[in-house]
Amino acid sequence: KAGVTQTPRYLIKTRGQQVTLSCSPISGHRSVSWYQQTPGQGLQFLFEYFSETQRNKGNFPGRFSGRQFSNSRSEMNVSTLELGDSALYLCASSLLQGIYEQYFGPGTRLTVT
Amino acid sequence: GENVEQHPSTLSVQEGDSAVIKCTYSDSASNYFPWYKQELGKGPQLIIDIRSNVGEKKDQRIAVTLNKTAKHFSLHITETQPEDSAVYFCAASTGSGGGADGLTFGKGTHLIIQP
Fold first, then answer.
1. What is the DSSP string of A39-78?
2. Tens digits of per-residue pLDDT, B69-110?
3. Average model confidence (pLDDT) for chain A?
4. What is the DSSP letter of B93?
5. In angstroms, what is the C-alpha Rg of chain B?
6. Contact A47/A58 with Cβ under 8 angstroms?
7. Range of lowest pLDDT (A42-46, A77-81, B76-80, B95-99)
């Protein structure tokens, strides 16, 4: 069974631009969570989607948003990029909400210049 | 919200020796504690997890122990091998599918296996 896939793997953007990242969960998994990883703050939870609805949200500004499609694929969007948004963005999938095991993708490395 | 502390930040052990990484959590409602291994350029890989109704869990050379009273849990790796070198993260969750705050992670331990 294929793992979690994320596209693109690397991205360079300029301050003020917006960016959309994509995540395809493990086949059959319906819950998708997003995390931001930086050297200073470590791994931080952004939000979780299940059945096309945002179920949980971390402590991030409204510039960070996401959505989930009927096939469970998910996208996250960051608007008005700031230098501090440079990070590895990780997507994790779970079979269902209520099932705890989360499996991570390889991440998208976003660099904001 | 939940806070997870992880120690040490770096751990160097001789190949064949054991390694122990410790984490403490603050929210007594946390009920799920996974451990992840992250190699350079890759996403975190789930290696073992434990739920609050269990005190210990083993999987070959890896074991995790949980002390709910003290609110701490530990990862034990025996007979370490070069391929165990990586960054290890502990995490805690208070609810389903990651919970209201998702998984809360420790800052990570860089495990170095010396040949």
1. TTTEEEEEEEEETTEEEEE-S--TTEEEEE-TTS-EEEEE
2. 999 999 999 999 999 999 999 999 876 544 445 889 999 999
3. 94
4. B
5. 14
6. yes
7. B95-99
Q: Under DSSP, is residue A83 helix (H, G, I), strand (E, B) or coil?
A: helix
State whether residue A113 sits within 8 Å of chain B by CB: no
Q: What would the mean pLDDT of A35-42 be, rounded to a whole number?
A: 94
What is the tens place of the pLDDT at every residue in B21-77?
999 999 998 989 999 999 999 999 999 999 888 899 999 999 999 999 999 999 999
Distances (CA, A) of A40 to A86, B108, B112: 11, 11, 21
Residue where the block lists tokens 């919200």: B1
> Whats the size of chain B, residue-wise?
115
CB pairs under 8 A between A and B: 79
Q: Is there a contact between A104 and B44 if contact means CB atoms under 8 Å apart?
A: yes
The distance from CA B35 to its chain's CA centroid, rounded to whole angstroms, is 4
Dihedral sign computed on CA atoms, order A93, A101, A110, A108: negative
Q: Which residue has the tokens 């603050």?
A: B26
pLDDT above 60: residue B114: yes
B91 to chain A, closest Cα gap in Å? 10
Cβ-Cβ contacts under 8 Å, A101 against chain B: 34, 46, 49
Report how far apart the first and last C-alpha atoms of chain A are (Å, whole number): 37
Going by the DSSP 8-state scheme, the letter that residue A25 receives in this structure is: P
Encoded amino acid at A30, one letter = R
Measured between alpha carbons, how far is A23 from A25 in angstroms, rounded to an integer?
Answer: 6
Residues in chain A: 113
